[in-house]
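INFO  loader      accepted 1 record
INFO  loader      residues=274
INFO  predictor   begin
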Amino acid sequence: MGAEEEHGDMALALGDNERSEESFMDQLFDFANETKHDGPIIKRRSLCTRCRRPLSVCWCPYLPHERLEIKTSIYILQHPFEESRCLKTAPMLCNGLKEGTCHVYKGKRFPKHKFPELMRVLQAPNTLVLYPGPGAVDISDIPKDVAYNLVLLDGTWAQAKGLYCQNHDIQLPKKVQINHQEKSKYVIRTQPTDGALSTLESGAVAISVLENRPEIVELLTRPLVALCDFQIQHGAVQHQSREYKIENGLWSKELPKSVKKRLEKQKQEKETYS
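INFO  predictor   done
INFO  writer      dumping tokens
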């Protein structure tokens, strides 16, 4: 299978605390083999040519047996920092869909003169951007007799917000959100709220609604479940959301003033109606 279509700037170099696990292990390998020793040379771990993970923890066998064919076109706008994460989920979505369905644009800003094709998509009447919040329409209320372009913002929640707010053209399409009751399967990463989903999960749920094919969610998220299982077997721990930790007194970091204000407001509302 070929790789998904990719556009845009090269991913930016990151600081030490943003380096991927694979990058760290490769550096450790190089250091070990540059040091003189009498023992045998350590062999570099074999990597999957598609997911770029060690073969022993490759998630590719859990992809759909045949790439899913859908009428929706997916456009992922990926923050540069997300590209360097070894536990990113966007590749799972792209590799689970028919080639030519998923298009990835990388960068923080997407000026018209550099991304003319993307601008045509953002200005099209059948384009939707998945971005929850005020003014967003429940995607289940969208007419289903249209082939849509679905724009996904890939990165942390803060990075996704930056992409949306700093690029005026991304704000042009109709803004939609999903109403999904299940918690994220991405249990090895702390989500901001219990309802927050990864890029893969958000895309899978949105596609399943637009296509009226609920089975798509389970088919596309199998690699994510496998990834989390692999990581837990190798010492990772399951994470609760930041919302859960705060509500149960488990959050040890200083909270932003906006979060404190929101929590105080929620507390007052509960006291008013109790």
